[in-house]
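Why does residue order matter? Because the sequence determines the fold. Keep that principle in mind as you read this record.
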Amino acid sequence: MKGALQPGVRPHELWAWAMFDFANSGFTTVVITALFNAYFVTVVAGNKPWATFAWTAALSVSYLLIIVSGPLLGAYADRHAAKKKLLAITTAGCVLFTALLWFARPELLWYAVACVIAANFFFGSGENLIAAFLPELARPCALGRVSGWGWSLGYLGGLLTLGLCLTYVTWAEAQGQVASEFVPVTMLITAGVFALASLPTFLLLKERAVPRPTDAIPCAAPLAEAWREVWHTLRQTRQFADLARFLLCSLFYQAGIQTVITLAAVYAGQAMGFGTRETLLLVFAVNITAAIGAFGFGPVQDRIGHVRAIALTLGGWIVTVLIAWAAPVAASGETLFWIAANLAGLCMGAAQSAGRALVGLLAPSSRLAEFYGFWGLSVKLASIAGPLSYGIVTWASGGDHRSALLLTGGYFVIGLLLLSRVKVARGRSAALRAERLDKLAASS
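Structure:
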């Protein structure tokens, strides 16, 4: 492990960093993927024809807010060495609004929508910030491995939260409770695990960035300062052409991944006839395969190269979508769907980890939070386009989830085609040149 870490980084710091993945994964697993999304569609929104669209629209609003704010938060964090401080604020926000989903009821539809938007906004903002620590901890030759370790631990955290919720749901159903009684309690469980499991991150992880000199502008103008940083980077887009190409590529393939994450439980219930307990078991199994994919694929990525590794995962995603689309609503179809779901888990863990590592290689070390903010912009724009297009297709087709699934597969095909234009060696050289120029500017 020591050979994978930057000089001065201790193993317990890596564990503390990875524990944030462990902590926040319960939110996506329970709220976005497995439980609350289906509860929102069937109970809060009353299973209306527009219910799936309403869910995807609420998430899209939160992602739009992240798109606007992500690079700005990153630029501010870089200049003021404030990644850890901002991470604490976003964590508290996500925990609070997740807990407030306890009050979500059919008569409080707009309240539920507001809480989902706020919780997901804080979650996504924190996801960008924690990713920006990765290149400070791992050597360039080990970014894939270290990213994979964190992401695999994250899926285990999702398993823990989901397991606690599944245990409670099983007990509650045995007591004769209905979803409107037991699902709100799982929101408190999810918020509690996030809060407790994130403590090692804030206690042990160091902020290694150094505040950069600021111009003589009023203290009340940090937003204007951040805007200047972002605008400066945007004017240098040609210098970071390969990173820009990869972000465009990730926009498309992440649209497919985010659709699966957001609507897996909805598809299982609406297209395959799964109940709450079956869906939770399915997501539980998928998290195991995703942890295996993230952990096992990290060293492969470092060995065969980042572009080839991501291309392999996108090929796996295309096969996954075709198997799931072909699975009929019958006993044999259920088996096929389980196979597709676990293949999706392997591909999801590998692709998510690999993308985060590649950005770390193509970003200058002097602007990590800002560039991960742009990565977050790409992922969150994908999180709008993918699920929202899925929701529109199901609404326009009268609930045809299989047609919407084929659309999802198309995103992976486009991403695979765009990936061929990314040259890692050229992009890494551009990042190193930018680092040298930033150091010269800071010393002058």
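The domain at 10-207+223-443 is CATH 1.20.1250.20 (Growth Hormone; Chain: A;).
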